[in-house]
Amino acid sequence: MQLQDIRGNRVYGAWGEKRNRLALFVVVMILGYASIAAVTQIDLTTQVKGILAFAHGGTGVSSLAAGVARSDGSVLSTAELSGDATTSASNAVTVVAVNGTTVAVNDAADQVIVTTASAVGEWKTITGTEAGGLAITYNATTHAWGTIAVVAGTLVDNETPTGTINGTNETFTVTTAPSPAASLHLYKNGQLMISGGADYTLTTNSIAYATGAIPITGDVHRASYRY
Questions:
Q1: Is the domain of 220 the same as that of 166?
Q2: Is the N end or the C end of the chain the one with fewer CB atoms within 10 Å?
């Protein structure tokens, strides 16, 4: 059975509200709550007092004296870091072990850390580098560091030695004294000449050819060296 008021309108509920009015009321309430939710904001600097919970973007604690905050807002202790790291009053985490293997502390300046197949770390001092001109090497089999000499100086390629090529002139010079002397590669018609007196002798930057090796007219004479 449906209830009607004196005008013949159907009514609902114990309060006798009309259906169309009830529906309008519900719509207005929904829109009102939505509007409030959309514009409500919190100013953390003026509206929040005390400790802000971790779930709301805070730490949940009044101070992080040392360590890192957990999800519940408390602080991770050294023990909870599995012994692989320690914390400091500045909230910094220092790694002291990797996969349970202790990371050694260097005992001198200018050291590098070396690991073996068992992941044991050890600091090594690289010797022999004080004079410079050396490159650092590493032997993955012996896990040893070393040094090798680095080629230094200026390279000169295909310089034409100064001197008359006529079959009788035996003395020629290059612009700069080769250093080391053994770096001089002297070519005649593309053939490498032998130093030490066999084909020529080098003195500072002067080349003295041996009899029988003197360049003759038409020969191509070139020198490459380092200094």
A1: yes
A2: N
138 and 170 in one domain? no
What are 102-129's pLDDT values in tens digits?
666 777 776 776 666 665 666 767 666 5
Residues spanned by the domain of 200: 155-226
Residues 59, 34, single domain; the answer is no
Domain annotation covers residue 166: yes
Helices (H) and strands (E) in the chain, counts: 1, 18
- Token pair of 36 as six digits: 């409030």
Lateral strand order in the sheet of 155-159: 155-159, 221-226, 185-188, 191-192
157 has pLDDT over 70: yes
Long-range contacts at 73-79 (CB < 8 A, ≥ 24 apart): none
Model confidence, pTM: 0.40
